[in-house]
Specification:
heterodimer; A: 167 residues; alpha/beta; Aconitase, domain 4; seven-stranded mixed beta sheet; 8 helices; 7 strands; 17% strand; B: 421 residues; Aconitase, domain 3; 2 domains; five-stranded parallel beta sheet
């Protein structure tokens, strides 16, 4: 079980807000500093590593830019949203960012609540303050393995298709 | 149970007799399109093997010619990769330059009945060519190039049955704004266009509509094939292909009838593309600083034709900038030959070389604090074209051109008053 402090965001949060065009050719570190700079300036300094985002419909709409990587890099522990944009979800799988669709989640949490996410056995999301329990639909195992295993690059490295990055 | 177009293409590409919504289809990819965005150090990894160089296309498009040293470095990496693996279809800065979705349509690299992937969200524009084209992630492009495969979660499909004919001065962009305003987002759904009204839509209009399907958050956006399309493709690409029509008993989440003749010019209000459309009259009079016509959605020759028609004999209003960016250099040359570039330039417009440019807030038309822009491009999100305090209205090229002349948002209806529907 993972427990995290909740930050709430609304419907249709687009990836231009998470990764503005002004930093699109910059380093992942610079990109991470710009998360939600236009719609929620200062949030990046308020949130702490491991915190969760709870959002409304169509989270991650718009551009394919690697916004999931920025959320992962600033330390967002997981995302729970009413629905997740298809391309953002793909990128979350690719970059190893834990993103879970969970109908009913927006109404079930206030900002500052703790969200408990259980991914062993039956999937469960629980709000310990209210006792509310939700059952998010499972993501296919093959995608979960990528999403929780660091994404697609480690897989391609293991198969000898791309070079290991010199670190 | 019959299948719709998206399901038939995914089934064929995955070697299955049938696919159904909800399942994950692992498919053979017909065409992999890489852009300059793939080659920035943050996204690029050295590829050791590729599956088939003949299936790879490289198009530098977002930041061309290079706007800063980082972009220049990405372009160098792309050139080295193209040379190392012998990628023949490499669109570098120069004669064959363009926006990837425009180039893949100009050259008919997007083949009917096949799967195409590209790490840019507007890839579904290939659906105008009956291609199951979709934006995937940057790392997934490395997966597709090295393994020849990709995966898709099969979505439900909404079918739009087109009838009637657009009124003069109304364009594909207005059709999109109509759909986005009434039906909103199509998250995790495919969009299929067909019906008798399709015949009256040029291939360029279909390209605009398919590109804008991205803004509905759709998965695939696919048009039925017709003779206009198949003749176009066969004249440009000698590779074999099997176009796909829907089965007679195809299953859809919903069928929606759309009479093109009922659609009026619309404008999307700042910060949102869907559920944001209002009639032009509702925002007419709003002063503007910049007008933009371009991007993969509105840099077609049709868009140049309509912009030139509106601008002919007029001047861009003092204090306003009109920037027009073609989708490809091939379109630029065609616009030059048709006299559109001269007309626009004489009217005071800046006609740039082909690139994503101002649409992505990259260069050649970035907005400053508090500025107001009306754009015929793909997105009007907060901060999209520059400073987050800029306000971006989105409309058709005709409305944008008429607004540039007026110096404020204005209807283009008078410029088309004599036309017959």
């Amino acid at each position: 079980m993972i427990a995290a402090r909740v930050w709430k965001f609304g419907d249709d949060i687009n990836t231009d807000l998470m990764l503005p065009g002004s930093v699109i050719s910059k380093s992942p570190e610079e990109q991470a500093r710009a998360v939600f700079a236009a719609n929620r300036p200062g949030w990046i300094d308020q949130m702490k590593r491991g915190d969760a985002i709870v959002a409304g419909r169509n989270f991650g709409m718009g551009s394919n830019r690697p916004a999931s990587r920025s959320l992962r890099n600033i330390g967002v522990g997981f995302l729970l949203a009413e629905s997740i944009n298809g391309l953002f979800f793909r990128n979350s799988v690719n970059f190893g960012f834990l993103a879970v669709e969970c109908p009913g989640v927006f109404a079930a949490f206030e900002e500052g609540d703790t969200a408990e996410l259980e991914l062993d056995g039956d999937w469960r999301v629980r709000n310990p303050r209210t006792g509310a329990v939700l059952s998010p639909p499972r993501v296919p195992d093959q995608l979960m393995r990528l999403m929780r295993g660091g994404g697609i690059f480690p897989l391609l490295e293991a198969e000898g298709l791309i070079a290991r990055r010199a670190t | 149970m019959g299948m719709n177009i998206a399901e038939k293409i995914l089934a064929a590409a995955s070697g299955a007799a049938q696919v159904v919504p909800g399942e994950i289809a692992i498919v053979e990819v017909g065409t992999c399109v890489l852009t300059d965005m793939n080659f920035f150090p943050a996204s690029w990894r050295e590829i050791l093997k590729i599956k088939d160089p003949g299936k790879v296309v490289i198009v530098l498009d977002h930041f061309i010619p290079a706007n800063d040293p980082q972009s220049a470095g990405a372009h160098t990496t792309a050139r080295q990769f193209a040379k190392k693996f012998g990628i023949a279809r490499f669109h570098d800065v120069g004669h064959d330059q363009g926006i990837s979705h425009v180039v893949t349509a100009d050259q008919a690299y997007a083949l009917p009945g096949t799967v195409l992937v590209n790490a840019d969200s507007h890839t579904c524009g290939g659906g105008a060519l009956n291609c199951a084209a979709r934006g995937v992630g940057l790392p997934e492009m490395l997966f597709a190039v090295t393994t020849g495969r990709s995966w898709f979660r099969v979505g439900e499909t909404i079918r739009y049955e087109l009838s009637g004919r657009l009124k003069p001065g109304v364009s594909a962009k207005d059709v999109f704004l109509h759909i986005a305003g009434i039906f909103g987002a199509h998250v995790n759904q495919n969009v299929e266009f067909g019906g008798p009204g399709m015949a009256g839509l040029s291939l360029n209009a279909r390209r605009t509509l398919a590109i804008m399907g991205t803004e509905l958050s759709a998965e695939f956006v696919i048009f039925e094939p017709d003779d206009q399309l198949l003749d176009y493709v066969r004249a440009r690409n000698k590779a074999p292909f099997t176009p796909q029509w829907p089965d007679a008993d195809a299953r859809y989440k919903e069928r929606r009838a759309l009479d093109l003749g009922t659609i009026e010019p619309l404008v999307a209000l700042p910060d949102a593309v869907v559920n944001s459309s209002v009639p032009v009259g509702q925002v007419a009079g709003q002063a503007i600083d910049q007008a933009f016509i371009g991007s993969c959605a509105n840099g077609t020759l049709d868009d140049f034709a309509v912009a030139a028609r509106v601008m002919a004999g007029h001047r861009v209003a003092p204090g306003v900038r009109l920037i027009v960016t073609p989708g490809s250099q091939a379109i630029f040359r065609a616009a030059l030959a048709a006299g559109y570039v001269e007309t626009l330039s004489t009217a005071g417009a800046i006609v740039t070389s082909a690139t994503c440019g101002a649409c992505v807030g990259g260069h050649m038309g970035v907005l400053g604090p508090g500025e107001v822009c009306i754009t015929a491009s793909t997105r009007n999100f907060k901060g999209r074209m520059g400073d987050p305090s800029a306000r971006i209205y989105m409309a058709s090229p005709a409305t944008v051109a008429a607004s540039a002349i007026a110096g404020r948002i204005a209807s283009a209806a008078d410029y088309f008053a004599g036309d017959i529907q």
